[in-house]
Amino acid sequence: MTGREEGLIRKKVAELAGVSEATVSRVLSGGGAAVKEETARRVIEAAQQLNYVPSALAQRFALRRSGNLGVILPMLPKVNLFSTYYFSEVLSGIGMTAKQRGYDLLLLFREPDEPRNYANLFRMQKVDGCIIIGAQDVPSEREALAELKEGSHPFCLVNQRFEGETYNSVDADQRTGSSEAVKHLLEQGCRQICFLNGPSVYSNSRDRLEGYRQALEEAGIPFLPERVLLGNYSRKSGYMQAKAIATLMREQGIDAVIAANDRMAIGLLQGLKEQGIKVGEDIALIGCDDSDVVRMTDPPLTSIRVPFFEIGSEAAAKLLDAVAQASGEETAVSPFEIKLPVKLIERPSSMFDESMNA
Amino acid sequence: MTGREEGLIRKKVAELAGVSEATVSRVLSGGGAAVKEETARRVIEAAQQLNYVPSALAQRFALRRSGNLGVILPMLPKVNLFSTYYFSEVLSGIGMTAKQRGYDLLLLFREPDEPRNYANLFRMQKVDGCIIIGAQDVPSEREALAELKEGSHPFCLVNQRFEGETYNSVDADQRTGSSEAVKHLLEQGCRQICFLNGPSVYSNSRDRLEGYRQALEEAGIPFLPERVLLGNYSRKSGYMQAKAIATLMREQGIDAVIAANDRMAIGLLQGLKEQGIKVGEDIALIGCDDSDVVRMTDPPLTSIRVPFFEIGSEAAAKLLDAVAQASGEETAVSPFEIKLPVKLIERPSSMFDESMNA
């Protein structure tokens, strides 16, 4: 259809619907101010009667592009989501890369008990690809991901693996991180090391535990399940374990704790202080994430630096490659499972004086 | 058109385009997996020839709804955007309320020198309403906002006013905040108070300065422009002013500084420490935002608590009321200019010993 033909038919649509041509343009091309629902319906009906599919609309559907990169996030109760270092960094990395590639970011908050209807986002053309943060290894999640894969919808997991499945993912080498933490503590003269982990629905929890177990065994120190305590990655859950740690110190001579994230480590630090226990003197403590606050605690916390910004950035870059491939613009992109390295950052919370080891 | 009629015409479209009926459904209703661009175009052309506007598509355009709440954010160079307390809190508040109202959040990052083409977001049906964070009082911003208003596109500013314009906005009472900070310092015995402000393109900077000036004058203390220093709200810009403050302490007996945000206050604290100046003893220091880190600095920082989460939440709630009104679902919503109260939280950085005042 030429521009002139399109102009003529729009005029007819306007007459039939009893509205101005400007209104027809607004409804059918989506330009200008909003139009009342009833008016819009009248225009659409007139267009249908007159055999007219506006080309802007046709194009949109032909291209099947939203220009949006979806990010699915858990809506954590009583937590201001973006205030947590983890989500902030990952999202910043995703946002920066999406922007460079000309994509906007659609944030999709998921309530804990809400159905995981991820494939619908693609069916409704809300997103061209999606990154899933905080995925859990539970049946409903596995189902939703299987549906995405079956529909060939491009998606990528961040910091999560599913045993037996090969999904696109970008993760950190958490296993090596925990191993390095154990080795560092052994060098400081520690021998009785506890591990404060998060829930095992996150593969990162399982990986960290595995690294801890393996490093102990390599050093000829038996792995004792009762030295693995459980929190839920919140500060409070770390704080709540202070009494248990104090008891283990008295009864079993525990001399170090590795916490699976900084928030639990900071909570534990506070709890231990209240018990009169000095971290960095009476006991060593290591966190994980190397978030911005660990430099400011007293004492500053040794922590495993995880490149969250880079994880987000890499996930967005690889996923948008896959999106381009799915829409036929690029040659095939192989599925990807990327693991970025982590690094132990030593600070006073785990640096014992020579005198202590004497 | 009945469901049966629609089925028949879809069959014809499929024949004409030389594809399966399932493919026609996928293209025209947006269900299932993506379809190659060329195939989609063939289906669209066949539908046009056969006088067929699929009802799902018609409905979408009739309703003119994206289900997205847009959030326009500055892409700050070299800053991980979400790591900053301000953006994190505001976004969490917006996200929580949007979710409750059934909206998704579309984040739109704006480069500093990028054209501010906000109205296009509505024309392209990417958003139903939009919140603008970090708006600056510069001509291009004023133009873009005027265009939004002219097009009756629902929008809301956060923490920004434009003199001479009445735009929907949610803000904090920064003026009273600075006034309270000055009064608190006067009670502590301080008399020579500096103000470290941010750029005046932000109305919040101007409001804070005005509160400082007014409280001084009410106390009969002259306002001296040379005691107002300028940063850019970054930590580094606060750090850079430490030498200037040290000089003012020696030469003019400066005994307190109010910084217009916590990040500058923390930078200044670090800089002063390096100069051998003890905050809370040699000089009082007050920040603004009451971000999570001010409890952890040494000494902990007195700061003006700004309810950023509530600001975001309120902005989203009022804006979505306006969106409902614009689409004719609700009776008229008046334009809103909301100011939420702030509160001074006292900590050791500004609490002088009695002995000091003796």
TrEMBL record, chains A, B:
Give the keywords, sorted.
DNA-binding, Transcription, Transcription regulation
UniProt-recorded Gene Ontology molecular function terms: DNA-binding transcription factor activity; transcription cis-regulatory region binding
**Which segments constitute the HTH lacI-type domain?**
11-63
InterPro entries from the entry? HTH_LacI, LacI/GalR-like_sensor, Lambda_DNA-bd_dom_sf, Peripla_BP_I
Q: Which CDD domains match?
A: HTH_LacI, PBP1_LacI_sugar_binding-like
Keyword DNA-binding on entry: yes
* Keyword match Transcription: yes
Protein name in UniProt: LacI family transcriptional regulator
Please report the organism this UniProt entry assigns to the protein: Paenibacillus rhizovicinus
